Please model this.
Amino acid sequence: MPLNSRLCSQPEKFTLHHCTDNIRFMTDLSVLPDSCRRVGIFGGTFNPVHCGHVAVAQRSLQQCHLDAVLWIPAGLPPHKPLASGASNSDRLEMVKLAMANFIQFYWSDVELRRSGRSFAIDTIAQCKANYPWVREWSWIIGADAIADLPTWHRAAEVAGCCHWIVAPRPDTSSDNLLEALQKQLPALQATWLTDVEWAVSSSEIRQRLSQGQAIADLVPEAVSTYLLEKHLYTK
Model:
C-alpha cells in the first residue's frame, strides 16, 4: 500500500483517538509479503497493548517510509520481570486485535516460541533468516528502553544490526540521549519520531483494571472487550 504523501510531507499528530475497532481479515498476518523491503520490528511485552503502541507504529510507518511493522510480543524479557495477569497467548491475541484494522501491520510469535530469554540480537537474526527479501530492518522502541541499550546482551552488535526508531516518552528526557548512546555504541543509527504521543503505559492500564476503573480511551475497543471478558489483570 503506497504511503500517504500528504501525511509524509505534513505529518499529522497521532493521539489516542486514532485507535479503531474495525477489524480486517487476512489469511495469515504472521507472514510478511515478499513485496516488503523496509520493515520495522516492534518488540515489547504488550502487557497489554494500548493505543499509544498503535499510534507509534502508525507514525513509524509514515515518517520512516516502512513497508510494514512486525509486532513481536516478548517471551521472557531479559531486563525486567513480566508482570502477571495475562498469559503469553492472551498478550499475542490482544496484539492481533489491536493491529487487525491496519493493512501494513503483521505479527510474529518468534519470541514466544523460543525458549530462554528474549534477546533482540537473536530476534533480529531470526527475522533476517525468515524474511530474506527484506533489505532494511528497523527496531521501534521507546526512549526509556533505548536509554538502557548499552546494558543489552551483545549491545555493540545489536546496535549496528538494524536502524532504531525512537518514540519520545514523557518520563524520559530526549536531550542529547542519542548522542550519549552513540559515544558508547558508535554503530548506532537512530531516528526520533515526531508528532506522536505515547503518554499511556501498560502498567497504568493494569492498575486501572485491578481497581475496576475505565480503560476505554486507552486501548482499542476490541482489546478492551477482550480484557473485560477474560477478567485480565483483575487479581
Summary: The first strand starts at residue 38 and ends at 44. Residues 51-63 form the longest helix (13 residues). DSSP finds ten helices and six strands in the chain.
